[in-house]
Design a protein that fits this description.
The complex is a heterodimer of chains A (334) and B (470).
Chain A (H helix, E strand, L loop, with lengths): L5 H29 L7 H8 L5 H18 L1 H10 L1 H23 L4 H27 L4 E2 L2 E2 L9 H25 L2 H30 L3 H8 L3 H5 L1 H18 L5 H21 L2 E3 L3 E2 H4 L3 H28 L11
Antiparallel strand pairs in A: 1-2, 3-4
Helix pairs in contact in A: 1-3, 1-6, 1-7, 1-12, 3-4, 5-6, 6-7, 7-8, 7-12, 8-11, 8-12, 11-12
Chain B lengths: L4 H18 L2 H22 L2 H35 L1 H35 L1 H4 L1 H30 L4 E3 L5 E3 L2 H5 L4 H29 L5 H35 L1 H8 L11 E8 L4 E8 L2 H7 L20 H30 L7 H10 L2 H15 L4 E3 L3 E2 L9 H31 L35
Antiparallel strand pairs in B: 1-2, 3-4, 5-6
Helix pairs in contact in B: 1-3, 1-15, 2-3, 2-6, 2-8, 3-4, 3-9, 3-15, 4-6, 6-8, 8-9, 8-13, 8-14, 9-10, 9-12, 10-12, 12-13, 12-14
The chains are: A mainly alpha (334), B mainly alpha (470).
């Protein structure tokens, strides 16, 4: 059973922050990935405006995830980032192009195609890097003492490429579902078709990654296929199948909000799958959350701040979303 | 573990480059957010459209600057791990929570209200919109509180014990946050942000006055900026002096290096105006100094004895030449800012504030100098902390990640090329916006017919005429 000490609490908080980032910036990055497929002009402008007021808040969860990891599990932070050095740098540079494109494309009409491409390329590189970082963590990281001890190219394997593509497809699905909700007319019909394709790719890659997982570390096989673990763990793929079925049904029935909620559920199940695979390791094969945990007084100090601020953060973030609710730029309005 | 000196040097250059480039943006964000809150507050209070015009004018510039600050800042929050993993492991239990508080209390606040501040005037009404602007401004200030607490702890660490695993373990968070150099560094940096922003606003005002666009908007912003420079520049000089005394007490090697004081003086040290610090011979070559003035400034007593760098082992000294010059650059620019403020007061008294070509040219020339002074100041304090990362306890050379020189060289090259290209273009867009004078009925950010977002069920307000709260 899970023993609920402060280290466990912080593991769940970091997991929450990572999940919040993945789903919220996930649909931003997904829209970037889909950008070339969206019609130049009104279609792209509206797609961009569907996230312009909220993307910065969404990206803040990435700082919370990274900063939180440093604060709560400094040893894990010190091992994972050097182990995935090129991926992290690529992600950061991708996010630079993606982030400035929000402003720059409105300021320079002549170079708008360039900034639209930067928006796409930056989003794609960031998503691929994030997926590959996930894979690099899951496949295990070599540690000696308190230092990363792997070689320089450990992060590049068929498995990490698979997880990278999986995250790209998953983000595209989220982005498409967000746009189904926020847009209408031709653009909506177009992104609905894109959502179907992204859903197929996401599910195929999720399945491939899950199967590949079983061959990575002996513990993984035991967690998923051992008895009695399998009675619990098998619920995750079963639920995934049900949600996937509903998602395709909802897309076919032209539901507007349900596909987004179902895609989010798919991500939640994926996250639970990662949790089942890794727990209680933060660096699989090397460091458990207790090995990497920060000082107890640091955990307590941060927990106070977290408990006070997080209801406020969720409150005003929710308010900001509510202010910009409804369809973007529908006909009949200004 | 032995660190490859080439990799170490490259990692230091990479951090210096990315943090310096990043720190062009946050001071302007801090200053401009406060200025925007003042402008919107004055508009609500007086009802004068002129303040709304200025608010919208600077809001467009703020949006671009904010985006560049965010994306260049995220790089830093990950670079502690990619390049300084040993530091992150050892100091994580102290520096990590301070940065987590920065995210929780500041970054979310700024980001959460930014969307409403930029695009939401028509949707939420004036009162709530003003609240959003104030929250963004408050977020920028809270951010500087936490990040400067973390930086100051690295300069003057206290409130911790060393763990058996080599980590710095917190004992008293109060002592950690309110460490000896923190209040000075916080006020010095925040005031610098206000001053740098005032110089930009004043420079833009001066530029449009020079070009004959003496509209009420231009005159108003020029006047506000000159008041700010006149009031804040002298305050900054006093804070800087106090900060220096504090540094002499806690980090004497930094002050001795930036003063060029290699030799001890038993009865009053001179103030060196110029010279060429030579660390190898431990001598200030070609020195030009004023007798006794150094002791007067540092000890507030012309005859006070001052120990020199000769009392500090060579391997615990910072490289003197860099801090000697960066310090002089910062102080020189500070004195020029003070002169600009005084001149503006005199011109105002003579009724020549909007007609003095010299004042306008002076203001224009000074417009980027706040940023130059800020970077020079950071170079002084960060290089002056060397060879330590956590002062006196953890050396920079023992803090690095196990990342090879070729990898760091590649990432450094990528950062340099992409930062100059992307942020260069962004700065150029800002300059282009500044080049157009503010005018009545300044456009909002939501000017395109589909930009951003008209909601079903809400009657869109007409452009430039914003509905008030019921």
């Amino acid at each position: 059973m899970i023993d609920f000490d402060l280290t466990t609490v912080w593991a769940f908080i970091i997991a929450f922050a990572v999940f919040a980032y993945v789903v919220m910036d996930g649909f931003d990055l997904g829209i970037g990935i889909l950008f070339p497929a969206i019609t130049v002009g009104q279609g792209r402008n509206r797609a961009m405006n569907a996230i312009a007021p909220v993307w910065d808040g969404n990206e803040t969860w990435l700082v919370m995830g990274g900063g939180g990891l440093l604060a709560a599990f400094p040893l894990a932070y010190s091992v994972i980032l050097p182990a995935t050095y090129p991926l992290v740098i690529a992600m950061l540079l991708g996010l630079i192009f993606r982030g400035v494109a929000f402003e720059f494309r409105w300021r320079d009409e002549r170079h708008r195609p360039f900034w639209d491409f930067a928006f796409f390329g930056g989003s794609l590189v960031a998503a691929l890097s994030q997926g590959m970082i996930l894979g690099a963590i899951l496949q295990g990281i070599r540690v000696t003492g308190r230092v990363y001890a792997g070689s320089w190219w450990d992060w590049l394997t068929p498995y990490t490429l698979l997880t990278g593509l999986g995250v790209v497809a998953g983000y595209a699905l989220l982005g498409a579902c967000w746009l189904i909700w926020k847009l209408e007319g031709d653009v909506q019909a177009k992104v609905r078709r894109l959502a179907v394709r992204a859903a197929v790719a996401t599910l195929a890659l999720m399945a491939a990654v899950s199967l590949y997982n079983l061959s990575l570390l002996p513990e993984y096989r035991h967690r998923w296929l051992g008895t009695p673990e399998i009675y619990f763990s098998s619920q995750v793929p079963l639920l995934t199948l049900i949600v996937a079925g509903l998602l395709f049904y909802g897309l076919a029935k032209k539901w507007e909000l349900a596909p987004l909620l179902l895609a989010l559920t798919l991500f939640l199940l994926g996250m639970i799958g990662v949790g089942v695979t890794m727990w209680p390791y933060v660096v699989p094969g090397a460091l458990t959350i207790w090995d990497a945990a920060t000082a107890a007084s640091s955990q307590r100090f941060m927990l106070v701040g977290f408990l006070i601020t997080i209801p406020l953060i969720l409150g005003y973030t929710g308010w900001a979303y509510w202010v910009f609710r409804g369809k973007v730029g529908g006909e009949g309005y200004h | 573990m032995l660190t490859d000196p080439t990799a170490l040097l490259l990692a230091r250059w990479q951090f210096a480059f990315t943090v310096s480039f990043h720190f062009l943006f946050p001071p302007f964000t801090i200053g401009l957010a406060a200025y925007l809150a003042v402008l919107e507050g004055l508009w609500l209070k007086t009802g004068k459209a002129l303040y709304l015009d200025l608010f919208r004018y600077w809001l467009k510039i703020f949006a671009i600057n904010f985006a560049m600050g965010v994306v260049s800042g995220i790089v830093l929050s990950y670079q502690f791990g990619t390049n300084w993993a040993v530091f992150s492991d050892k100091a994580g239990p102290i520096v990590g929570p301070l940065m987590a508080y920065e995210v929780l209390t500041a970054f979310f606040l700024e980001a959460g209200f930014l969307g409403v501040m930029l695009f939401g005037m028509e949707k939420v009404g004036r009162g709530l919109h003003f609240t959003a602007t104030v929250c963004v401004a408050l977020g920028t200030l809270l951010s500087s509180f936490w990040i400067l607490a973390a930086n100051s702890w690295m300069q003057t660490p206290q409130g911790f014990e060393m763990g058996a695993n080599g980590q710095f373990l917190p004992l008293s968070w109060w002592a950690i946050i309110f460490n000896p150099s923190f209040p000075y560094r916080l006020f010095h940096t925040v005031v610098a942000s206000f001053l740098a922003t005032a110089l930009v606003v004043g420079g833009v005002g001066g530029w449009h006055l020079l070009r004959g666009n003496a509209t009420p908007q231009v005159k108003k912003m020029f006047s506000m900026a000159m008041w700010m420079a006149a009031l804040v520049a002298p305050v900054q000089i006093v804070i800087g002096d106090q900060h220096g005394l504090n540094t002499l007490e806690h980090q004497p090697a930094k002050i001795l290096a930036l003063e060029g004081d290699y030799l001890s003086h038993a009865d009053g040290a001179p103030l060196y105006l110029f010279g060429w610090p030579n660390d190898r011979t431990q001598h200030l070559d070609y020195a030009v100094g004023i007798p006794k003035l150094g002791s007067l400034i540092l000890k507030h007593d012309p005859d006070a004895p001052l120990a020199g760098l000769d009392t500090i082992p060579d391997d615990e000294q910072p490289p003197a030449a860099i801090v000697f010059w960066s310090f002089r650059l910062m102080v020189g620019l500070g004195l020029l800012m003070f002169a600009l403020g005084l001149l503006s007061l005199w011109a105002r008294w003579r009724g020549a504030l909007y007609s003095s070509r010299f004042l306008q040219r002076f203001a224009l020339a000074m417009s980027p100098m706040g940023f130059v002074a800020i970077i020079a100041g950071w170079v002084t304090t960060e290089v002056g902390r060397q060879p330590y990362l956590v002062y006196g306890l953890l050396r920079t050379s023992q803090s690095m990640s196990p990342v090879g020189a070729s990898a760091v060289a590649t990432s450094l090259l990528a950062f340099v090329v992409i930062y100059f290209a992307v942020f260069g273009v962004g700065i150029w867009y800002i300059l282009r916006l500044m080049n157009a004078p503010p005018h009545p009925h300044e456009e909002t950010l939501a000017k395109d017919e589909w930009a951003p977002i008209r909601t079903a069920g809400i009657t869109p307000a007409t452009q430039g005429d914003v509905e008030g709260e019921p």
